[in-house]
Every structure is written in C-alpha cells, then in structure tokens.
Amino acid sequence: MAWTRFGKKKDMPGGLWIKCESCGGMLFRKEFEQKHRVCGSCGYHFTLPGRERIALTADPGSFEEMFQPLMPVDRLGFNDKVPYDQKLKLTQEKTGETDALIAGTATIKGIPCMLAVMNFQFLGGSMGMVVGEKVARAAEHAAARKLPLILFACSGGARMHEGAVSLMQMAKTCGALALMHRAGGFSISVMTHPTTGGVTASFASVCDLLLAEPGALIGFAGPRVIATTIKKELPKGFQRSEFLLEKGQIDRIVQRAQMRDELARFLAYGTGRDPVAAFKPAPQATHEPIEVPPAPVEEKPKRGKKSKKE
Ligand SMILES: [Zn+2]
User: Fold this and answer.
1) Looking at domain 47-279, which of 3.40.30.10, 3.30.1060.10, 1.10.10.10, 3.90.226.10 is its CATH number?
2) Is the pLDDT of residue 290 over 90?
3) How far is the centre of ligand 1, averaged over its atoms, from the C-alpha of 214 (Å)?
4) Which of 101, 213, 259, 284 has its Cβ near the most Cβ atoms within 10 Å?
C-alpha cells in the first residue's frame, strides 16, 4: 500500500489525498468528493458541508435561502481563549456563513418543501440562538405554507458560549415543531455524523420520520462520559445509527447516494402525492462539490527532496 509513504500529515501532497477516519485507507480527494465524501473502500460517511448537502438534496437552482439576516450575539461576553464575538467574526469570515444552519425553500424531484441543514464547519454545528430561531421559523413557515419540513442535523450540541440561551432553543424548536404537527404538518429529521447533545435531545428526535446516515454517531452525552458514569463497558456499536435502528430509536438508515430518492418518496407519502411518480427520473441534483475553504497546506521551503513527479 502506497499510503505508508505518507506517515506524517505534513507529507500529504497539497491535500490531494485524504485518510479515511474509519478504515485508514488513502482516498484521492477528487474521487472522494465525487462520491459525496463517502469512503470508496469501507463506505464511511464523512461529515458533509451544509452547502454541499443542499446541492446534493435539492433540485438544481430550486433552493431559496431564508432568514439570512439573523445574526448571533455575544450576550454573556463569553471568553474562552478567544472572546466569543471575535470567534464568531473569524468563523463567519472563514466559512462565509452567518451561523451553523442554512434554511430555505426548495423542491426535491419537483416536490416543494422547507429544507434546513446544519453546517458542522461553523463551530461544530453547535446550536445557539440563531440555529434555534431558524429551526423554529422554518417550522412556522412550513406550517403556514403547508410545506413538509426536512431537517438535516449535524451538531456537537448546544453552544456553550451562549449559556442558557442556547439551552432554551431546545424547548423553542420542539414547541415550534409541535405546533406545526398540530396544524397537520409533516417533518423528516435526517441525523448525520455526528448528531449529539441538545440537538439530539430536541428537534432532531421529534420529527415524524427519523432517518440517519450509516455509521453516524447519534447520542446525548458522549460514550466516554456514559462509560465513566455507569462504570460499565458499553455494548459494541453503541450510539451508532445501526445500533439505534435495532433499538427502535430511528426509523431507517439511508445511504447518502440514495438520500435524495428516499426523501422524494417520503415527501410524496407525507403530502399525499404519488410515490411512484416521485421516483421517475428528474433533473439530477448538482453533484459538483461546493467550494469549501481548502485545508491549510504546509509549504516546504527545503529544496532537494522531491516527492512528486511533474
Ligand atoms: Zn474507509
């Protein structure tokens, strides 16, 4: 295997190769991105950036973003090495996003819906005031327009920088979803790797249909915390989608490559459309990866040692 040549991370040539977090195999970046960040060897589903998720899910050009003016505020003057307001500014510049959730209307195989996608690149997809407010508004908008709602979760949990305000979002998002459901609305939650903490314990778990990507870590507290607390060894596969499916916590595991088709079918069921028609060929979603900020590449000032042929 050639990958043993790249023992150290700094030896990776220009970010061309990516090491699989699961099987350790070396993946050619271009091929890896064409497979929507799924390992070609073991099928491990890497975390997908929010915009890429939208491009993969919605019909081309159908996504119309909403609630963009909502901006996070540092109410507590929280300081953790870098003050929270500075951290927000830096992350906003780096990601080009205002916060960790992108919401709007879209069509999937022609079926109109409300789509909200968490972006792990923004402070670990943590839920603060903006994420919570956008989920709540997405549910309200979906109810008002009688649109089905799809929520893609990908989060490290509540955002500690916002203290109790971030915890309050759990109640708010669940309240908004409950009102939407009472009005006859239909919702789908897709839990992706990782979905943890306050997000699992709120909106991601209270939708009509709970889907998950294969191998996703889904839980409230982390496995190490639980193992230390209960002083017991945890069962194999604990907190992974397959384990949760077996225990009845989620309804279905869907491969990333099939997600769009499956969502279209569920949207058809949920809105009284013909599910067979929803499976007919439709304009393909753009599979081109969205440009994300490249990983920092270490320039090698040393001469003489050539690792790559032109
Ligand atoms: Zn792999």
Assistant:
1) 3.90.226.10
2) no
3) 13
4) 101
